[in-house]
Structures are given as structure tokens and as C-alpha cells.
Design brief:
This protein has 400 residues and is an alpha/beta fold. It has helices at residues 33-40, 47-52, 54-59, 90-97, 115-125, 137-151, 175-188, 229-235, 246-249, 264-275, 289-295, 300-319, 370-380, 392-399, and strands at 6-12, 16-19, 77-81, 129-134, 154-158, 163-169, 197-204, 211-212, 218-221, 239-243, 257-259, 281-287, 325-330, 347-354, 362-366. The protein has 2 domains: 6-103 and 223-399, Alkaline Phosphatase, subunit A, CATH 3.40.720; 115-221, Phosphopentomutase (Alpha-Beta Plaits), CATH 3.30.70.1250. It is globular.
Length: 400
């Protein structure tokens, strides 16, 4: 493998392709973000990913996705992936792709955080706490925004995921103070309370019209164990370029270049910019809007439109790729907008592996997300002793 090679991992955040066998343990029976969205939206038009084999991957779930018919001759290797780690959050999903399989899930707080955690947080920040229970991010500022403005207390809430979220108005709490409070929470939340992410959620506006400032959101994740895919790439002398929220998910560790942008279009633009640079190694990108804007709000039409838009943007990115580039498109969990839940869903994501000159083969159902990391490492010529098996190997066997 030549030193100029690049592996590109593109994660469509929350776009699952059918429930995991243990979905019932999470209350997610029947979830299938792609198939159910396509059905409820009256069909999806996604020529790029469909030609690569997206419909073939969805068909493995036993459900039909209108507009996503299986391709007769897919241009990419296609399949789905099981998640070995417990949980259904972005940190867990991305870490497993990088070769880190968790033995226990990050803790959840359906009844809110315990007093000792909140007392330590209040002491460290000098501000009290409002809410402290699972809540929609848009609804919590609507219901607690006025009291926050009046008292200066942080709005602390969680969700069905392992997150400690802190909301504050930019005119009440300066951004840097919010970020420092989030860092303090990250230091406090250790041991049994080591949540996957602390999230700073600034908002603006007046009473009755508060709005989150998505581009100023910051995630403070637990530091990932090493070695992992990112550390292996950096230790080999190559670069890791993160686009979107990748830096947040990996606690800014082993990332050579970070293009921290918000939104699907901005992330794809950052990806294309990265492809225009001569940086051998890994380009890791996350398109968050599917999850943040549509899945969590059960916005079926928004989800469908976003899928169709990104499909076109992927086509443009692929045009910039050369023979030394390998593209892996997948997801980190589900977030089915058609179910009553507004939380993530325990689903198998699709996986598509594409490169110019590659022979597409069926990949079946992979046993772990770590196959993504193993494949990227294989392509880059790196030794891989972590969980997972290279999907390039399936192609080699097909070639005989």
C-alpha cells in the first residue's frame, strides 16, 4: 500500500437500516430509519447511494424502502453492521468504528442526575441548576428559558442517551463561561457517572422565541482508549482530518486537522476541501443534521429531504476522489423519525465501500462496526490488532 493513500469514512448520523436483534431491550422494536422514512415520505430519490447498493443493504432488514430498490449491479460493496458495544449513541458508534468495543454502556439518567453530581457542578460553576431530567432540547429552553434568564441558573438536562447537557442564554452566560462549565462537568463526571458526552447548548432570543445556536454547540467526550484507528494513523506519520463533530467525539485526540463545522452541507464542503489537500491518511466526517434536526424531532419530511440533498453532495465528493482513495459510507446508530420515541434507536447501519477500480461484492451482515476501522487500516497499509475484520478481504476473496 502506497503512502499517498487516503481512507474516507463518512457517517450519516442516525441513519439506521433496521433493528438490532436486541432492540427490544432498548424499546426500539420495529425501528428502521431508512425504510420507515422512505415509506412515510412517499419514497426517496437517492441515485448516488442507491447505485452504490443502499437499497440492497436495506433489503437485508426484510423491509422495502420505496425509491431505494436494490441495484442489479451495485457500484460499491454493500451490507449492514451489528454493534458489539452496548448502547446506541454517537460516541459508542464512532469509537467502535475506530476499533474500540465497549464492555459496558455509558450510564443513563432517566430520573435525572444525583444530588452529589449537581452539588459539585453548582460549586464549581457558582451557578445553580434548573430542570435536571430528560427533555427535548428545543422544549427545555421554551419551558425553562425565562427562569434561566431571571436567575442565571444553568439548564441541565439529559435524554435517552448518555449525555449531560447544559443550556444557557448567550446574553446571560458568556460562551466561554458555558464552555468552562462544560469542562468542569466533564471533570466531575467520572467513574460510575462517566457519561459519554457533556454538551454545551447555547441559545439566544427572547421569551417565547428562544432558539438554539447550533454552530456554537460544543461536545466534551470521554477520552477514547488507545490504540484506536486515529492513533494508529497518526503514529504512522499520516494525518487524521476530522470534519463536523469528529473532534468532539474523540476528545480532540489524534486529530491532525479539525474542520469543526455545523450542518450537513458545511460538513460535506469541509470533506471536499479536505479531498483537495495532499494529506495521506484518514478523513473522518459526520453529517449530524439527520440526527440533531430531524430524528430527535420526528421530522419525517425533513429527514427525507436531508437524505436526498446529501446524496447529491456525496456524488460531488466522489468526483474529487482518485484511485488512491477508499470511501466508506455508514452510520453510527438509528434515529427513526416515524416512531413515538424522539431518542436514538438501536439499529444496524448500512455500510458501503467504494473505490475506483474495486470489484463490488456483497458484505452481508458484519459482526461489528470495527470492520470499518479494520478496512481503513488495511487500505492504508497499517497493522490492525484491534477488533474487526477488513471488508477489503471479502473483495479479495471474490476476485479469487
Amino acid at each position: 500500500m502506497g503512502a499517498a493513500k487516503r481512507a474516507i469514512i463518512l457517517v450519516l448520523d442516525g441513519i439506521g437500516a433496521g433493528e438490532m436483534p436486541d432492540a427490544g431491550l432498548y424499546g426500539d422494536e420495529g425501528s428502521n430509519t431508512l425504510a420507515n422514512t422512505a415509506s412515510k415520505a412517499g419514497g426517496l430519490t437517492m441515485p448516488t447511494l442507491s447505485s452504490m447498493g443502499l437499497g440492497n443493504a436495506v433489503a437485508l432488514s426484510g423491509k422495502k424502502a420505496p425509491g431505494l430498490d436494490p441495484a442489479e449491479r451495485p457500484t460499491a460493496s454493500w451490507g449492514r453492521m451489528m454493534e458489539k458495544s452496548p448502547g446506541k449513541d454517537s460516541t459508542t458508534g464512532h469509537w467502535e468504528m475506530a476499533g474500540v468495543v465497549l464492555k459496558r454502556a455509558f450510564p443513563l439518567y432517566p430520573e435525572g442526575f444525583p444530588d452529589d453530581v449537581l452539588d459539585a457542578f453548582s460549586s464549581a460553576t457558582g451557578r445553580g441548576v434548573l430542570c435536571n431530567r430528560p427533555y427535548s432540547g428545543t422544549e427545555v429552553i421554551k419551558d425553562f428559558g425565562d427562569e434561566h434568564v431571571r436567575t442565571g441558573r444553568f439548564i441541565v438536562y439529559t435524554s435517552g442517551d448518555s449525555v449531560f447537557q447544559i443550556a444557557s442564554h448567550v446574553d446571560v452566560v458568556p460562551l466561554e463561561e458555558l464552555y468552562e462549565a462544560s469542562r468542569a462537568a466533564r471533570r466531575i463526571l467520572t467513574g460510575e457517572h462517566e457519561v459519554g458526552r457533556v454538551i454545551a447548548r447555547p441559545f439566544k432570543g427572547g421569551s417565547g422565541s428562544y432558539a438554539r445556536i447550533g454552530e456554537k454547540r460544543r461536545d466534551f467526550a470521554v477520552e477514547p482508549p488507545v490504540p484506536n484507528l486515529l492513533s494508529l494513523v497518526v503514529d504512522s506519520g499520516m494525518d487524521v482530518t476530522g470534519c463536523g463533530k469528529i473532534d468532539d467525539l474523540f476528545a480532540n485526540r489524534n486529530i491532525s486537522v479539525s474542520r469543526h463545522v455545523s450542518g450537513n452541507r458545511a460538513t460535506m464542503e469541509a470533506l471536499v476541501q479536505s479531498l483537495g489537500e495532499d494529506r495521506p491518511g484518514l478523513v473522518f466526517a459526520n453529517c449530524v443534521d439527520f440526527d440533531m434536526l430531524y430524528g430527535h424531532r420526528n421530522d419525517i419530511r425533513g429527514m427525507a429531504s436531508a437524505l436526498e440533498e446529501v446524496d447529491g453532495l456525496i456524488a460531488g465528493a466522489m468526483e474529487r476522489m482518485g484511485a488512491d482513495d477508499l470511501l466508506i459510507v455508514t452510520a453510527d446508530h438509528g434515529n427513526d423519525p416515524t416512531t413515538p420515541s424522539t431518542d436514538h434507536s438501536r439499529e444496524m447501519p448500512f455500510v458501503l465501500v467504494w473505490g475506483k477500480g474495486h470489484k463490488p461484492v456483497p458484505l452481508g451482515t458484519r459482526s461489528t462496526f470495527a470492520d470499518v476501522g479494520a478496512t481503513a487500516a488495511d487500505w492504508l497499509g497499517l497493522r490492525w490488532d484491534l477488533p474487526g475484520t477488513s471488508m477489503i478481504g471479502a473483495e479479495r476473496r471474490a476476485l479469487g
